[in-house]
Amino acid sequence: MSSSQLKTLYQAAGEVADHLYKIFKTLSEPEEYELSDFTDALIHPVEHLLLRFDSYILLLILYVVPVTPEWEGPSSREQHLKTWLVILSFCQIN
Q: Which of 12, 33, 71, 91 has its CA 20 to 30 A from that of 22?
């Protein structure tokens, strides 16, 4: 994996963490928001995650799956993870 690929993966993980934190913070402190602000505070990070979902899954398939340890057979774990991620991505589209 090149340094550029590592940087891309690192940035994507940071984006996901930031948006999940925003969602968690909003849900854990609802009394601090007016109703319209509350929905806006939830909608923005959720929409961002949904828009980037496929690219995040692709990053996982391209960069993470190939370096996962082989626990069962030679690449069976990798194949299971790839299959699951592709199915997850497909279900999100439909």
A: 91
